[in-house]
Specification:
By secondary structure, the chain is of the alpha+beta class. It has one domain (13-307): Sulfite Oxidase, Chain A, domain 2, CATH 3.90.420. It has nine helices and twelve strands. It is globular, with a radius of gyration of 19 Å.
């Protein structure tokens, strides 16, 4: 009989936050000092239901391989405390992000592939094995959250794209539409937002394309209709509102690598021993609490990904 491997960062299902406690949002918000957010619970829930088509997201089965060592972050915090520079540099850009038209949405596959093509989001989602995963998310700004993402393995999307064997990297690009996203009118930023992974990273079991959260379609401010989730890396690698996947031999130069090459780099692996030039990465604060937790190498996912970086001790994993 097959034996399921339990990872060091996992808790048994019995240790998960009870559903009735998690759903009691008003109590959670009050305890965390975010009472004012409770007043927008209704509009936010309705907005999430309207975002995208929702195909295959609400009923996604939970994958038991991916559990958490901490309670889920309250949904209202996750959907109202966002980085999405296409709409502005403030954390409360969720209202502005509602301008993003996510349906219809087309995704382009090009570069070193058998055949370049464009595919509608709905068509792509129908071809993918949709599931829910519980992941930690660690921002380079030293705050963190725990989120139930729904979506599909990035590996499945790579197989769908049919890259050539010469492809070494996957370059990912967001939409470009300054009429919808006023932040893209800031000419000093290198729009559109670009991120990249090695092919080994892209096909790692942890790499995930999220199309929803909390059993609902992805809200615009969280990266609708599809975003990257790579939980062992800092959050700026989890590029939002993806519109293009390019397979290439050359390592992509990412958005933040271009903006601040002295502060942000390609690898961006969570590493408590490598401080940001302006602050320590040794600790992190969970959203909704004042509790500071010790940061773990690879955000605690080393059992899955440490092997990707064997022999790279001389290369700065953060930078």
């Amino acid at each position: 009989m097959p034996i399921r491997r339990r990872h060091g960062w996992e808790l048994p299902e019995s240790a998960a936050t009870p559903e009735h406690v998690f759903l009691n949002r008003r109590s959670l918000l009050k305890a965390a000092g975010f009472v004012g957010l409770a007043s927008i619970a209704g509009p936010m829930a309705a907005m999430a239901q309207d975002a995208g088509t929702g195909t295959g997201t609400a009923s996604a089965p939970r994958n038991p391989e991916f559990t958490l060592d901490r309670p889920l972050t309250d949904e209202q915090l996750v959907t109202t405390y966002n980085n999405f520079y296409e709409f502005g540099s403030q954390k409360n850009i969720w209202r502005q992000a509602q301008n993003l038209k996510v349906s219809p949405w087309t995704v382009r596959f090009d570069g070193l592939v058998e055949q370049e093509r464009e595919v509608g989001f709905d068509e792509l989602l129908k071809a993918m094995p949709v599931e829910e995963r519980l992941y930690r998310h660690r921002c380079v700004e030293a705050w963190a959250m725990a989120v139930p993402w729904s979506g599909f393995p990035l590996r499945s999307l790579v197989e769908f794209a049919r890259p050539l064997g010469s492809a070494k990297y996957l370059r990912m690009e967001t939409f470009l539409d300054p009429d919808q996203a006023r932040g893209q009118r800031q000419f000093w930023y290198p729009w559109p937002y670009v991120e990249g992974l090695t092919m080994a990273e892209a096909t790692n079991e942890l790499a995930f394309i999220a199309t929803g959260l909390y059993g609902k379609p992805m809200p615009p401010q969280n990266g609708a209709p599809l975003r990257l989730a790579v939980p062992w890396k800092y959050g700026f690698k989890s590029v939002k509102s993806l519109a293009r996947f390019t397979f290439t031999e050359e390592r992509p130069v990412s958005f933040w690598e271009t903006v601040g090459p002295g502060e942000y780099g390609f690898w961006a692996n969570v590493n408590p021993d490598v401080p940001h030039p302006r602050w320590s990465q040794a600790q992190e604060r969970m959203l909704g609490t004042d509790e500071m937790l010790a940061t773990r190498i690879y955000n605690g996912y080393g059992e899955w990904v440490a092997g990707l970086y064997a022999g790279m001790e001389g290369e700065a994993l953060f930078m």
